[in-house]
Design brief:
The chain is built from 2 helices and 7 strands; from the N terminus they run ββαβαββββ. With 139 residues, the chain is of the alpha+beta class. The chain has one domain: Archease domain (Archease, Possible Chaperone, Chain: A, domain 1). Strands 1-2-7-6 form a 4-stranded antiparallel beta sheet. Strands 3-5-4 form a 3-stranded antiparallel beta sheet, with helices on one face. A hairpin with a 4-residue loop joins strand 1 and strand 2. The longest helix has 19 residues. The radius of gyration is 14 Å and the shape is globular.
Amino acid sequence: MKSYEVLNHTADIGIVAWGKSLEEVFAHSAQGLFYLIAENPCYKLTFETTVSVDGNDYEDLLVTWLNELLYLFDVEQVFLCEFQITEIGQYFVKAKVKGETYNSAKYPLKHSVKACTYYEARVEEQKPDLWRAQFYLDI
């Protein structure tokens, strides 16, 4: 099973992510987001922090989670590579994320992502042990 797949759109770009659990589909969504930003192999994971966000439902939680990771990229200038979801529910997610300082000279941007949007955002359990998330990014 693929972790995620890129969705082409006329103006934006999206991701469909899959996972065996809600935790895994949120981690794979984050991996897809950073895949679209740049190809950075993350040799040294020198940055680590805990991210906690709340949402009104799974879709709001996904969009808020991804926008918080974008905030870390934009403000802290860290490229995130590892996403360990430590707690998740319908209204909250808490994760330990790891990465390294982003070096734009070494790894140029593939897409300048402004934000994760609510356009066609979905999180659903398709069957036992198969979760699917979909989201679009404003680029």
